Amino acid sequence: MSKQIDRIVGAVACLLALAVALTARGFRVGFYTDPLGPAGLPYIVAALLGVGGLVLVFRPSEEAERPRTMSLVNGATIIIGLLAYPTILPYAGFVLSTTGVIVLLGTAFRAPPLRSVVYAAAYTGLLYLLFSIALGLPLPIGSFFLRSG
Amino acid sequence: MGGETLAYLFNGFGVALQPLNLVLAFIGVLVGTVVGMLPGIGPINAIAILIPITYTAGIPAASALILLAGIYYGSQFGNSISTILLNVPGTASAVVTAIDGYQMTKRGRAGPALAISAIASFVGGTLSIFGLVFFAPVLSRWAIRFGPAEYSALMLFAFTALASVSGRSRPKALIAVALGLFLASVGIDPNSAVPRFTFGQLKLLDGMDFVVVTIGLFAISEVFLAMEDTERGQSVTQSIGRVMVSVKELLQTGWTMVRGSAVGFLVGVLPGAGGTIASFLAYSTEQRLVDRDGTFGTGDTRGVAAPESANNAAATGAMIPLLTLGVPGSGTTAVLLGALLGLNVTPGPLLIERSPEVFWGLAASMYVGNVFLLLLNLPLVGVFVRVLAVPRWFLFPGVTALSFVAVYAVNQSPFDLVLMTIFGAVGYVLRKVEIPLAPIILGLVLGPLIEKNIRRALLLSDGNWGVLFSSKIAVAFWLLAVASLLIPAAVRILDTRR
User: Fold this and answer.
1) A116 touches chain B (CB under 8 A)
2) Residue of B nearest to A87 (CA)
3) N or C end: fewer C-beta atoms under 10 angstroms in chain B?
4) How many beta-carbon contacts under 8 Å exist across A and B?
5) Strands B195-196 and B187-188
6) How far is Cα B454 from Cα B456, in angstroms, rounded to an integer?
7) Phi and psi dihedrals of B77, rounded to 5?
C-alpha cells in the first residue's frame, strides 16, 4: 500500500517538475539582466522535484504505514467552512461570519450546540475587542449592515 | 573582551527590563508554554499567527523579537508537560523525554518528573545564553567577510542539513525544499520584472506572503489532523500529584543537566539539527556515561533531565546562525527570520553592531524569560495541566478563527484567506504522504535570498560559475553540504550491512 503512495507522490512530483520547467521556458526578457536570469531558480526547482520524484517512483519506501483518514462529511464541513468565510466576510462582516464559522467547525468537532454558540459569540467578541478596538485593525463591518444602517 | 561583553549585556538588560518588553517576554513564554504543551499546536503556528499582530500593533523590532523568541524557547519548556503526563510529546523535541518521563508518571512520580523537567529546562536555557552572548559576536566578526558566493554555499548547506534530518525519506525532503523554493519564486522577479507563476492573478504579483503560507501549512492542516483524532475519540486527563523533587535527586541530576546543556547548545548552532537531535544525543550520551545500573528507560530522573536541558539549550543555540548569519537552520527559526525581515531588521554579521538593542535586548530578555518560565512551570504547572483537558471543539475552531484574523491582518485581503485554506488542505495532504513541512518554510524564506546571492555572485564574475567555489570558506560550505547529504545515507548502508 505505502509503496503505491510513494509512487503516486513521486509521479506527481515529476509532473510538477515538468510543468515548472515548461512554464519557466517562457520567462524571457528582451534585454540582458544577469547570467542566471529569471528562469534559473525555477529550473533548479524542477531539477530537485524531478530527482526526488524519480527516486520515489523507482525506489519507494516500505516502512510507512497506510495513513489514517477522516470522514468525508467532516472534512467537507471544514473545507466548506473555511472557504465560505472569506466569501461572506465582506457582506456579513467580521462578527457574524466569525461566530458562524466557529459554530460550524464546532459541529464537526462534536461540540454541544448551545455551549458552542455561546463560546463562538464570546470568543468572536473578544477577538473583535482585541484586534479592532485595541490594535486598530480595520475588520470588515459588513456591507449588508452598512447599506441597511 | 569579557568586560566589553558585560557592558553590552548590561545595556541589554536596560532594554529587556523596560515595562513593555517585560510584559511581552512574559506573554511570549506563557504562550510558548501553552503551545509547546498542546500536541498539534506548536511554536511555528503561534509565531506565525503573532507576526502580523506585532506588525499591526506597531511594536518596535527588539520588542517583537523578544515576544516571538519567547514563544520559541518557552515552547521547549512546555513541551515536556504533555510528554510526561500523557506520553504524547508536545513537540518533536520532547519525544525522548517520554521514555523516562512517562515511566515516572506510571509509577506515580509525575510531580517530580515535571519538576526535574522544569529545572533542567531552566538550566539548559540559562547556561546556553552564556554561549549565545560570547559566541555570537565572535561569529559575527568572522562572517563579516562573507560575500555572495559564501552566502550561497552557506544557505545551500542549511538546506541539505535540514533535508537530511527531516523525516525518514530523503527524496521527500528534497521535494519539500523544491516546493518551498517554488513558492519563493512566485511573483515578480526583482531582477528582470518578469512575473513568475502568477497564473494571471494580480494578487500573486507581490509573491506569496510567508505568513499566509505558514499559517495555512501548519495551523490549518493541524485542524484537519485534530479532526481525525476527534473521530477516533481520544481524550485525556491525568492527576499529577505534588510538583516537587528532593534536593538529593536534584543534585544527582546536576551534572547531567550541565552536560545536556553543552550538547544541546552545540547541536543547536548547527543548521538542520535542532532540539530533536539535541535531545536524542544528550540522552544517549548520558546513558553511556552514567547509566551503570541500567535504570534509563525505567523512570530515571536523569533520563528526563538530559533531553530537557538539551532541547532548551538547542533553542538558544539556533538563534546564533539566525542572528549573526541571517541563515536559519530550522522551520521555527525560518519563521523568525521572516518576521525580522518584515520588521526591516536584516539579521547578519552587522546586526549586533547596527542594532545592538535587538541582539543584547534579546539576550538579556532570555534570562528574564527563563526566570518567568521557571515560575510558570514549577508552582503553576497544575493550572497548565487543565489546559490539556480543554475539548477540541473549543481549541481548534478557536485556532481557526485566530488564524483568519492573523492572515487578514497581513493585507486586509479575503483572497489571502482563500490562499490560507488552500495551503491548509495542501499541508494536510503533504503530512499524510509524509512530506516534511519545515523545509518548505525554509525554502520559502531563504529562496529569495539564495537566488539574490547567486545572481549577484554571477553578475560580479561575468557569468563565470567558478566564482561560487572561489574562496576557501565557500568550498568548505559546499563540502559540508555534500557531507550532510551523504553521511546519513552512508551510515544507513553500513547499518544494514552489519
Assistant:
1) yes
2) B414
3) C
4) 199
5) antiparallel
6) 5
7) -75, -50
User: What are the tens digits of pLDDT across the range B396-407?
Assistant: 999 999 999 999
Pick from A79-88, A93-102, B462-471, B489-498: least confident: B489-498
At residue B191, φ and ψ (nearest 5 deg) are: -80, -40
Render pLDDT for B262-317 as a digit per residue (tens, 0 to 9): 999 999 998 876 788 899 889 998 988 888 888 888 888 999 999 999 999 999 99
For B435, which residue in chain A has the nearest alpha carbon? A9
- Contact between B54 and B238 (Cβ < 8 Å): no
The residues, any chain, with a CB within 8 Å of residue B296's CB and separated by 6 or more, are B99, B100, B283, B286, B287, B302, B303
Q: Are B345 and B296 in contact (CB under 8 A)?
A: no
- Choose the closest CB to A48 out of B174, B232, B391: B174
In the numeric block, which cell numbers belong to residue A33? 539582466
ipTM above 0.90, yes or no: yes
Alpha-carbon distance of B280 to B260, in angstroms, equals 10
- Name the residue of chain B whose CA is nearest to A57's CA: B171
Q: Give me the residues paired with residue B187 across strands.
A: B196
Q: Which one of B155, B432, B433 makes the best mutation probe of the A interface by having the most chain A beta carbons within 10 Å?
A: B433
Measured between beta carbons, the chain B residues lying within 8 angstroms of A127 are 401-402, 405
d(CA B44, nearest CA chain A) in Å:
21
User: Would you report the helix, strand and coil content of chain B in percent, each value rounded to 5?
Assistant: 75, 0, 20
**Torsion angle of alpha carbons B186, B191, B194, B198, nearest 10°?**
10
Q: Considering Cα of B399, then B402, then B407, then B410, what sign does the dihedral take?
A: negative
Determine the residue of chain A that is closest to B397 in CA distance. A102
Alpha-carbon gap, residue A111 to A122, rounded angstroms: 15
Eight-class DSSP state of A129 = I
Would the CA dihedral through B188, B189, B192, B195 be positive or negative? negative
